[in-house]
């Protein structure tokens, strides 16, 4: 179960993480710390398994930092640590599922694991050639853009007549880079959005929706829009989508450092972006009524205790049918942690239960009453039910939404 107490700055959250790191870096499902946390989580599930009545979910993905850097005592992300962490839950044991951007983004919305093409960020855009299916609806094959039969959480939402939008910073600023409003790159061409340019730092590898023909072949593609449209959409509850996915550009998500336009990039620019945009979400009527915001990172590029890139994992992550090792090079994408804010989450909560991108997909699907896609349906995988939320049926706190 989550430990619920108010955090004084970094303080207690750092202590919880340091203890977990000391117990084998939280690197696999046999870690005693993780096993104990998972057992406590299952006990919490027995008490209540219903999700709170959330109707609007907002997901923000940053880039390429280990949890010990993003949330450590020397982090330059002051707004994230000093303001946002205090407003909700610090999800200390949250792990990426891959060690390339694209595999993490697509797994978060589809439950499909990476393959060799995704593990190279699909620098050359090809169709995924499906040769079969594996248990849990996993696609067998290789390539980049999944066929129409492979669904995502937003296809599920549409089937239930629920609304979604993905907001991509800089998308469309230079029409010669993105091809069309949806931000997709033509099949059979090099993905030139992997190279940022001043004024347009959109990257298709950070836009998971353009890698599924179940989206790009249909009007659904029109729901992938520039970030500049979000403020107007969130100005009323009636125009706020039920599911919102947000990708800052490759400077403001922390990926580039420095950036092509001269900005510092890294966590400095990412934190400034959070300071500018997160209050738009927190002050919206839809969020205040029944919203959930989750901010996390796609993968870790930190160095682990063995002196190599942090590729730790949790939750018995499996490789899937198209690659030998989970996450590409095994066992996963590293510990990134995250922050969850909602009126249904007590400020100062610290969760030590292990989660990954598949867990987050499972949580969203439970919130909206959807079947589990891909590895979100893996046996034993935890969702947030019974852990992070204060109570499945009661509102315990409405956070201060001034953003300062």
Features:
alpha/beta; Alkaline Phosphatase, subunit A; 13 strands; 26% helix
Describe the structure.
The protein has twelve helices and 13 strands. It has helices spanning 11-22, 32-47, 67-70, 78-87, 101-110, 153-159, 175-178, 213-216, 230-233, 266-282, 285-290, 357-367, and strands spanning 3-4, 56-62, 89-91, 94-95, 129-134, 138-142, 164-168, 224-226, 243-247, 291-297, 338-342, 349-351, 355-356. The strands form three sheets. A nine-stranded mixed β-sheet has the order 1-12-3-11-10-2-9-7-8, sandwiched between helices. A two-stranded parallel ribbon has the order 4-13. Strands 5-6 form a two-stranded antiparallel sheet. It is globular and about 45 Å long. Helix 5 packs parallel to helix 12 (357-367). It has a single domain (3-377), classed as Alkaline Phosphatase, subunit A (3-Layer(aba) Sandwich). 26% of the residues lie in helices and 14% in strands. Mean pLDDT is 86; it is low at 1-48 and 395-399. It is an alpha/beta fold and 404 residues long.
Please render the helix and strand layout as text.
Blueprint: E1 3-4, H1 11-22, H2 32-47, E2 56-62, H3 67-70, H4 78-87, E3 89-91, E4 94-95, H5 101-110, E5 129-134, E6 138-142, H6 153-159, E7 164-168, H7 175-178, H8 213-216, E8 224-226, H9 230-233, E9 243-247, H10 266-282, H11 285-290, E10 291-297, E11 338-342, E12 349-351, E13 355-356, H12 357-367
Parallel strand pairs: 2-9, 2-10, 3-12, 4-13, 7-8, 7-9
Antiparallel strand pairs: 1-12, 3-11, 5-6, 10-11
Helix pairs in contact: 5-12
Name of the level-1 CATH class: Alpha Beta
- List SSEs in N-to-C order: EHHEHHEEHEEHEHHEHEHHEEEEH
Largest sheet: 9 strands, mixed
**Low-pLDDT stretches:** 1-48, 395-399
Strand content: 5-15%
CATH H-level name... which superfamily?
Alkaline Phosphatase, subunit A
Strand order of the largest sheet: 1-12-3-11-10-2-9-7-8
CATH topology: Alkaline Phosphatase, subunit A
Shape: globular
Total beta-strand segments: 13
Distance between the termini: 29 Å
Strand pairing plus helix content: what structural class? alpha/beta
**Nearest-integer average pLDDT:** 86
What fraction, in percent, of the residue positions are helical? 25-40%
């Amino acid at each position: 179960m989550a430990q619920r107490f108010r955090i004084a700055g970094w303080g207690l959250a750092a202590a919880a993480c340091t203890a977990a790191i000391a117990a084998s870096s939280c690197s696999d499902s046999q870690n005693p710390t993780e096993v104990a946390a998972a057992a406590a989580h299952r006990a919490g599930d027995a008490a209540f398994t219903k999700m709170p009545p959330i109707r609007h979910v907002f997901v923000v993905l940053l880039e390429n930092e280990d949890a010990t850097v993003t949330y450590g005592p020397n982090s330059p992300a002051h707004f994230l640590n000093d303001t946002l962490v205090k407003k909700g839950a610090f999800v200390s044991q949250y792990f990426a599922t891959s060690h390339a951007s694209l595999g993490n983004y697509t797994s978060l919305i589809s439950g499909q694991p990476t393959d060799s093409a995704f593990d190279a960020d699909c620098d050359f855009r090809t169709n995924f050639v499906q040769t079969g299916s594996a248990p849990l609806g996993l696609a067998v094959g290789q390539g980049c853009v999944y066929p129409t039969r492979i669904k995502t959480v937003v296809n599920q939402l549409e089937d239930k007549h629920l609304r979604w939008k993905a907001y991509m910073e800089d998308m469309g600023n230079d029409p010669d880079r993105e091809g069309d409003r949806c931000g997709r790159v033509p099949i059979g061409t090099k993905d030139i959005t992997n190279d940022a340019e001043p004024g347009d730092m959109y990257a298709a590898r950070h836009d998971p929706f353009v890698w599924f023909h179940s989206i790009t072949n249909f009007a659904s593609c029109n729901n992938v829009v520039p970030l500049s449209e979000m403020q107007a959409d969130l100005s009323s509850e009636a125009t706020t989508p039920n599911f919102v996915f947000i990708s800052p550009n490759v400077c403001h998500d922390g990926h580039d450092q420095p950036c092509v336009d001269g900005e510092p990039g890294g966590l400095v620019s990412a934190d400034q972006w959070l300071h500018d945009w997160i209050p738009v979400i927190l002050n919206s009527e839809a969020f205040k009524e029944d919203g959930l915001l989750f901010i996390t990172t796609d993968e870790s590029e930190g160095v682990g205790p063995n002196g190599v890139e942090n590729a730790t994992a949790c939750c018995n992550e499996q490789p899937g049918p198209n690659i030998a090792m989970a996450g590409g090079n095994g066992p996963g994408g590293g510990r990134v942690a995250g922050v969850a804010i909602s009126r249904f989450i007590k400020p100062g909560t610290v969760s030590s239960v292990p989660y990954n991108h598949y867990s987050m997909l499972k949580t969203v699907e439970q919130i909206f009453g959807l079947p589990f896609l891909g590895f979100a349906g893996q046996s034993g995988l935890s969702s947030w039910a019974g852990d992070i939320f204060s109570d499945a049926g009661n509102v315990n706190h409405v956070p201060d939404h001034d953003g300062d």
